[in-house]
Fold this protein.
Amino acid sequence: MSPSEDPTAPPPPGGPAPRAPEPVSASGWDTGAPALDDPYAAVHRAPGWQPPAPPHEPTAIAALVTGLLALGPAALALGVAGLVRTRRAGTRGRGMAVAGVALGAFWTLALVGVGVAVALTVAQQRPLAADVDAPRDAHVQQLVTGSCLAELPADGPVERVRVVPCAEPHAAQVVSTFQFSPAAVWGGQDAADSRVAQGCTLTDDERAAGVTLVTWAPTEAGWRRGDRTGLCLAVPPAPVTGSFTDGTATPAP
């Protein structure tokens, strides 16, 4: 304004209305900040509040621990329960529950596999009856004195054979066995074959009928598995019915 103007005079008609005074700080200087409702103190805000973290689910922890201890079925059951409880209750530990399920499934499958292997091994070593009721396949270790074989396998290692009732035509029969000492040491296949052959004999009647003797000794692999039994087989020139062990063997019709 010019010095001659009166600041208190009303504005001329049509002129702009006077502005309200700007807020001034306590020091008398304009801070440029907007006026506050409370001019006596600045506003302080407290730090943000966080809710407490949910607790860990004990079942999930137990699932992980039992899984690490190879307790497969228990870890699997606890892991599933842990997953359900963490979802329903909002507790922590879902990762541990998942790990428990994975470990539990692994150890459970491993346990089943071991059980099947043991069952098969036991089944392969369970001796047959001296005369079976029906034809069946059997492991060589299951053969006993009296077992009749439908066919004589070719030379070489033998694992499985076809066993038939002795009343049916058969090509060979186990007439005796030779048992190695449990303390015996493997001396090679030739030595094992020779030792079994020394323990096998035929009767004079069997020799006269043209029966020959075939011996089966344990192989090195079988020896490592505990096989200590050698087999003596009577092989007629043609299939027979009946048994050599009781003298009823006759040429098959």
Observations:
- Helices lie at 58-68, 72-89, 94-125, 189-198, 204-208, 220-224.
- Residues 136-243 form one domain.
- The chain has a mean pLDDT of 84.
- Residues 94-125 form the longest helix (32 residues).
